[in-house]
Design a protein that fits this description.
heterodimer; A: 285 residues; alpha+beta; Thrombin, subunit H; 6 helices; 27% strand; B: mainly alpha; Arp2/3 complex 21 kDa subunit ARPC3
Amino acid sequence: MRNIFLFIRRYFNFLLFLLLQGFSIYFIVHYSRYHNALFSNSANQVTGKINDQVNRVEYYFRLKNTNNELVKADGILLNKLRSDFEIPDTASRTVIDSIQVDSLERYRRYLYLDAKVVYNSVSSQNNFIVLHRGANQQLKEGMGVIEPNTGVVGMITEVSNDYAVVMSLLHKNSLISGKLMHGGETGTISWDGKLPNLLSLTGIPKTAKVAKGDTIITSGYSTSYPKGMLIGVVEEVIPEKTSSNFLIKLRSSANFYNLQFVYIIDNKQTEAINNILDKAKKKNQ
Amino acid sequence: MGSFIKYFIRFALFIGVQVFVLDKIHLHQMVTPYLYFLFILWLPFRMKRSWQLIVAFALGFALDSFRHQYGFHSAACVLIAYFRPFLINLFIPQEGADTNYEEPSIKSMGGMMPYLIFTGVLTFIHHAWLFLLEAWQFGNIWYFLIKTILSTAISLLLIIITELLIVRKQKFKTNTI
């Protein structure tokens, strides 16, 4: 017994070193389980507040860019107004259905919530974005995030009371399904950890017609994004030698360098879809 | 107590500069400018080794919580805090310089060259361990090596600039202990 104490005393520094290294590596390995832990939430609140203060200053330097983006987005919306179009057939007229079953409110599928970006990184291997909006303002984990011009930004992975952490597309764990706007083939979007704004799309068969400049959109197969949100534009098409698929490099539509405002997509049917999936899985077991 | 406040302010400043200035600079995907770990190199000679390890862990953890990925920087910081005393023993010039001065600097290490080697080796260890932990998940040895060497060069440049800009008061204490 005495020898054990002597040993611990003699090698105390080395043991402490091993213990702290062990802690760190445990955090790295168990990231996904760990990030639900309680104090991650409070650490999130603290760093969120600091980020918010700094962003107040930084925000002024980017006002011009932000404004340009908003004007562009506004222009797109204005062009969708019904009053922009003439209806040639004067015999038909539009009637607003007043029956409750058909009302938009009740059957709304997607609700867009705006949020301010307070922290954003692109230089790391796993990048995150912090939003000044959290559980108290209706955010939940798993919601999709887009920028004002409907370019996909990422998905919410952590929510504290007033702040939310978004796993950006520039993250090694980020996998979303993307689709060729022309052909309709779907594949998986991932990031290789090198150049920001350059994503890869895998799983597109070589029979598909792809060319540089084609648009890639979201497939709508997940509950996080509606169909047709922009992901990027094809930059390079590389045939994989070992498989019958293409490896497609694409330039992301969202500019991750200067995000100021984003919209969060609240899919009102998420719960319903998940319930029915669970039911189907139970039946198969 | 006074030195505790000094080191606390220094800790906050290093983390602040790293998170809000250096992390916003995007030079190239191969180069990540790091400076925050200079805090560990500047810890006093006579601080207990176990405390050095704990302070280093706290520094790494503070940066990790800003980046929302825990473990990477704390692992690298603890590693260099563990190696630091060995390197100080290697490079300290004359007998008792570590008792004459308070903390490592160009003056107390006896010139530019020993100080640069001391910081260079620790910077390299820090970057290598940090990028190795990150590259584990991507697995490309050349990418890892080039990134480590380039980032070490940038960090050393930043350290030299910091040394030139910030004058730390280095009192020469009498060598009677």
